[in-house]
């Protein structure tokens, strides 16, 4: 029998599954809820939800004396080492989360901790806004008179359970995410999942609080995107399943981490052209495809965000480090930084451009036509000496991930750098990223 005892606040979907699975792992678990009917079900060895396999787990734990339920939160906290918060966080009419249940439970846990001397770990499993972990700690401190990270600690541990396969998901996660400002609590929570065959990622608290929103929003995006493709395919008498089966076979680009790094806008000769073609196809078929139609708008928003950051620096001499739409090519067609540079020139900014792959004399065909139509006399802005571009500018805009770029940021501390290429940490006050 595991000596760690756990109290779970909220016996709804997540709470009931957690109670069943943790008790199956050998933990003594006390469920806490305001609903007497849920309490009675657990105390009879019955689950509070309909879910595959959960009934067997609850029944087995009940017969082995490892689970109970109560409305007495003070008793539950004092009989446990860990308290898991899994109460509901419903949406308000304006789309915010109603965190009243979270805060009420936090105050109750704090009240119970007044007379407790042992270190207590509080785990937030409910879906909450970033910053909630900190607020929960403040409420517990206020109601208990105890000090965070001395008498108790708060850990964010989001759940990724799907209705209909929640028990399977509990035991087979892709990753277990935990975030806290207390190492002791992180180790305690890590030990809870010691038998789960999945990596445990210890992350910043706000990262742990944010990831559930990103996951579910992307899942919703995938479903809706597939449906829009299905609608277009139906009108063209094409099997959407055949198309999407081919789509999902590509695990290098389509179903992978590729293209999922926050940064600057896309460009080049393929993505803008083919997206426009699909959008036109949908329009000609009299279909509404809001996701497909909004992609280009979102891409343009990122260009405007870059312009806003650049203009906020109030520097007139701008150095552009990378002009092609991506590193390793001289393709300037639909390069987002070309459009940004065109805008800056139109506003009277002075610019110099460094790109080791772009040589005006070697530009040909549509590539040359494109750049000359957007930036006439482009040759006079190009310079093949990066140091010359940097020393002649007050603000440098990084669009490509150069091998030595961090060296230049450190070397030229008197210059401002705006990075559109990738996130870099600990770069100092002369550095800002587009979305980091």
Supply the helix-strand structural class: alpha/beta
The overall average pLDDT, rounded, is 95
CATH architecture descriptor of the largest domain: 3-Layer(aba) Sandwich
Poorly predicted regions are none
The oligomerization state is single chain
How many individual helices?
16
N-to-C terminal Cα separation, in Å? 46 Å
Q: What percent strand? A: 5-15%
Main CATH class of the largest domain: Alpha Beta
**Total number of strands:** 13
Order of strands across the biggest sheet?
3-2-1-4-5-6
The fold-level CATH name of the largest domain is Rossmann fold
From the alpha carbons, calculate the radius of gyration and give it in angstroms: 28 Å
**Given the C-alpha coordinates, what overall shape results?**
elongated
Structural domains: how many: 3
> What's the CATH superfamily of the largest domain, by name?
NAD(P)-binding Rossmann-like Domain
Properties at a glance:
6-stranded parallel sheet, Rossmann fold, alpha/beta, 16 helices, 436 residues
Commentary on this structure:
This protein is α/β, with parallel strands linked by helices. The protein has three domains: 5-203, Rossmann fold (3-Layer(aba) Sandwich); 205-260; 299-433, NAD(P)-binding Rossmann-like Domain (Rossmann fold, 3-Layer(aba) Sandwich), CATH 3.40.50.720. It has 16 helices and 13 strands. The strands form three sheets. The protein has a six-stranded parallel sheet, with helices on both faces. Strand 5 (120-124), helix 6 and strand 6 (152-156) form a beta-alpha-beta unit. The longest helix is centred in the middle third of the chain and has 31 residues, at 205-235. The model has no long low-confidence stretch (mean pLDDT 95).
């Amino acid at each position: 029998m595991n000596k760690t005892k756990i109290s779970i606040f909220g016996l709804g979907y997540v709470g009931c599954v957690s109670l069943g699975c943790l008790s199956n792992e050998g933990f003594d678990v006390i469920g806490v809820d305001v609903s007497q009917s849920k309490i009675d079900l657990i105390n009879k060895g019955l689950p509070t939800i309909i879910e595959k396999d959960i009934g067997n787990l609850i029944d087995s734990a009940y017969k082995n004396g490892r689970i109970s339920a109560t409305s007495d939160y003070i008793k539950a906290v004092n009989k446990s080492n860990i308290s898991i918060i899994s109460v509901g966080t419903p949406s308000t009419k304006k789309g915010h989360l109603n965190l009243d249940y979270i805060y009420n439970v936090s105050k109750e846990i704090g009240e119970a901790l007044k007379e407790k001397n042992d270190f207590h770990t509080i785990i937030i499993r409910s879906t909450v806004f970033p910053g909630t972990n900190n607020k929960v700690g403040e409420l517990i401190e206020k109601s208990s008179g105890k000090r965070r990270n001395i008498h108790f600690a708060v850990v964010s541990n989001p759940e990724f359970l799907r209705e209909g396969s929640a028990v399977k998901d509990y035991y087979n996660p892709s990753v277990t995410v935990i975030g806290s400002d207390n190492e002791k609590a992180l180790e305690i929570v890590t030990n809870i999942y010691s038998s789960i065959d999945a990596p445990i990622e210890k992350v910043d608290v706000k990262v742990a609080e944010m990831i559930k929103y990103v996951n579910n929003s992307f899942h919703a995006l995938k479903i809706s995107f597939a449906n829009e493709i299905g609608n277009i395919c139906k009108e063209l008498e094409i099997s959407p399943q055949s198309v999407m089966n081919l789509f999902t076979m590509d695990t290098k680009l389509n179903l992978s981490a590729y293209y999922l790094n926050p940064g600057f806008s896309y460009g080049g000769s393929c993505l803008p052209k083919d997206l426009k073609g699909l959008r036109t196809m949908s329009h000609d078929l009299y279909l509404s495809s809001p996701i497909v139609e909004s992609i280009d708008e979102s891409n343009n928003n990122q260009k405007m965000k870059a312009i806003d950051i650049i203009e906020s620096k109030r520097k007139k001499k701008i150095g552009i480090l990378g002009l092609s739409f991506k590193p390793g090519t001289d393709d300037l067609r639909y390069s987002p930084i070309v459009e940004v540079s065109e805008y800056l020139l139109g506003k009277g900014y002075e610019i110099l451009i460094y790109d080791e792959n772009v040589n005006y004399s070697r530009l040909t065909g549509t590539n040359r036509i494109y750049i000359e139509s957007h930036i006439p006399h482009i040759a006079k802005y190009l310079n093949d000496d990066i140091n010359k571009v940097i020393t002649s500018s007050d603000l440098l805009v990084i669009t490509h991930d150069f091998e030595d770029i961090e060296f230049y940021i450190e070397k030229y501390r008197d210059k401002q750098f705006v990075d559109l290429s990738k996130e870099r940490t600990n770069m100092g006050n002369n550095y800002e990223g587009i979305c980091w």
